[in-house]
Write a structure and sequence with these properties.
Elements: E1 49-55, H1 57-60, E2 62-63, E3 66-67, H2 74-82, E4 99-100, H3 103-114, H4 124-142, H5 166-171, H6 174-180, H7 196-204, H8 217-225, E5 231-232, E6 241-242, E7 249-255, H9 263-266, H10 291-306, E8 310-316, E9 328-330, E10 343-345, E11 362-363, H11 364-390, E12 394-398, H12 400-407, H13 409-413, H14 430-433, E13 445-446, E14 451-453, H15 466-482, H16 504-510, H17 512-515, H18 526-535, H19 537-542
Parallel strand pairs: 1-7, 7-8, 8-12
Antiparallel strand pairs: 2-3, 3-4, 5-6, 9-10, 10-11, 13-14
Length: 549
């Protein structure tokens, strides 16, 4: 099948307001990945690269303030279920617990050296130990073994880099990132790795041979798409297999856009984009992109993705960032039936202690405005997929926003009056329903011996746990099966029959936050609150170096 011409995102100024095509009612998720538009397809051979992903921290496998176990990212989980894990290339960040700062490992280190029950705010020894841990991490990534770029020449299949938005994916390369990294300094006060996103890119994007350093996420994916051919014999295969002569990539997943709004809840500040939103340096001033600016960036991205030789492209919508427990609603809902709280502040500040005069916060009106902007981002993305399918491209839409909405504990699950007509709770896999307590979207807590609450969000209150990445992988697998992608057994390569299900037993076994969270979370959120207030952990680690170290 010869690919048609590239398509672009619509101009929001020319898009009619009201109910977006494909939605059952205002605010409802897009439930049909094809948006009701059939595409006739016929393929020959098999693409050399069965799965390639372009994205940010959610795709790279970030959790608890660090990218660490990239072998448990949702793309790696999909590759495992494809029977293609051994061929799936992804960067490694295992040194010192990952980059920029593994909050889970920090708390476990404090537990080992200071005990599970500590008066965090009164103990100089805890502060000293924490700063020592952070100093070791900083030294490793800025001056030690972690500062070296990836040595191989093969392009990774997981090209995601944490903290990146649409413009970064278009413009940032290893060469650009190298020029942006500041001269390392052993700062005794600001002990967080400088320029962490750029350092991560040097281990993710190609750097060798030297000419490859000009590749961005999108152009690196395009290079993989050019790897077409007639036949190949892989190691261990008895027979040659025919390669797709048109497409070097079977499935390309594009999951970008969260960082065009996420900083609003991380920094608890709404700074709408203005002129300079499309400049790598100037855009650091903004925490939320205006919908017209997002759509303009999306047009550029869609045009670039349209030139990639991929059979199937799955676009993931932007989740509503205000659901993430890093920003906790206080003082009850604004009114009966409202989705929003009057204020959103740090999760360790309870209702009785919150003071709007001195505590950082967003208002309910600001949270609603951010969500409304994200809805327009996602409508523009849906229009992009719709236009592509009408042009004959096998593009799909996975509504990640609708997925998170159905998992939202405090917004919908615990408040029947706030549930819209389309809302139903997300049916968790049986392996997760069997856990006690059943995982939910609240902040993760421990009673000293076991998890007592939460389980879908890691310790940074933004990124999923391993089992939650498995939920996202399952949704994408369902779309891939709808596209006709064949899944095979991990050993032997035999085709799998439907339904293809993620091995959640394996993921539960690997998910340390689910089966053994740090015992020093016993005192509610005081441990993480102390870490953030004493060490400025969350904002500095989750800002991904916006504006410097």
């Amino acid at each position: 099948m010869t690919a048609p011409d590239p398509v672009s995102a619509p101009d929001p100024a020319t898009t009619a307001p009201g109910l977006a095509p494909g939605r059952a009612e205002p605010g409802a998720p897009y439930t049909d990945p094809t948006l009701g538009i059939p595409v006739a397809t016929s393929w020959r051979g098999e693409p050399r690269n069965r799965l390639v992903t372009v994205g940010d921290s959610l795709t790279q496998g970030f959790q608890s303030c660090a990218v660490f176990r990239t072998d448990l990212s949702y793309p790696a989980i999909i590759a495992h279920e494809l029977g293609w894990a051994e061929q799936f290339r992804h960067p490694s960040f295992e040194g010192r617990g990952g980059l920029p700062l593994n909050l889970e490992m920090l708390l476990r280190d404090l537990e080992d050296h200071c005990g599970p029950a500590v008066d965090w705010w009164d103990t100089p020894a805890v502060l000293f130990r924490a700063r020592r841990f952070m100093d070791e991490v900083e030294d490793y990534w800025e001056r030690g073994g972690g500062c070296a770029p990836a040595a191989g020449t093969a392009i990774n299949h997981n090209l995601a880099v944490f903290g990146w938005d649409l413009r970064d994916a278009l413009d940032k390369s290893a060469d650009v990132c190298r020029s942006m990294i500041d001269t390392p300094s052993d700062d005794l006060v600001r002990q967080v790795v400088g320029n962490p996103g750029e350092r991560a890119a040097l281990r993710t994007l190609p750097t060798r041979p030297p000419a490859a350093g000009a590749h961005t996420q999108v152009s690196a994916a395009a290079a993989l798409g050019e790897q077409t051919g007639s036949a190949v014999r892989d190691a261990g295969e008895a027979e040659e297999r025919e390669l797709d002569p048109e497409h070097g990539i079977e499935t390309l997943i594009v999951f970008l856009g969260a960082n065009n709004a996420l900083s609003s809840v991380v920094e608890l500040k709404v700074a709408w984009s203005e002129e300079g939103y499309d400049d790598l340096d100037e855009k650091k001033r903004f925490t939320v992109w205006r919908p017209e600016h997002f759509a303009a960036e999306l047009r550029h991205l869609a045009h670039a993705v349209g030139r990639i030789r991929a059979r199937h492209v799955i676009w993931c919508t932007v989740p509503h960032v205000t659901i993430a427990p890093v920003a906790r609603g206080v003082h009850g809902k604004l009114e009966p039936g409202s989705r929003y709280f009057p204020y959103y502040t740090r999760p360790w500040i309870d209702d009785g202690a919150f003071d709007a005069e001195c505590d950082p916060h967003l208002t309910g009106e600001q949270a609603a405005a951010v969500d409304a902007a994200i809805d327009q981002y996602n409508d523009a993305m849906a229009e992009t997929v719709r236009a592509a399918r009408r042009a004959g491209r096998d593009w799909f839409l996975l509504d990640a926003a609708g997925l998170l909405d159905r998992l939202a504990c405090r917004r919908y699950f615990e408040d029947e009056a706030a549930r819209p007509g389309w809302w139903t709770p997300y049916p968790l896999p049986r392996e997760l329903r069997a856990l006690d307590p059943v995982p939910n979207s609240r902040f993760l807590l421990s009673d000293g011996d076991r998890r007592s609450d939460g389980g879908l969000f890691s310790l940074d209150g933004v990124h999923p746990t391993t089992v939650a990445y498995g939920i996202l992988a399952q949704e994408l697998i369902d779309v891939m099966r709808q596209a006709g992608v064949e899944f095979r057994t991990p050993y032997g390569g035999r085709p799998r029959t439907d339904p293809v299900r993620v091995d959640f037993t394996r993921l539960v076994r690997h998910d340390t936050l689910i089966n053994r969270p740090p015992a020093n979370l016993t005192s509610g959120l005081h441990a993480i609150g102390w870490a953030d207030e004493a060490l400025d952990v969350l904002v500095r680690a989750l800002r991904f170096g916006r504006g410097g170290k």
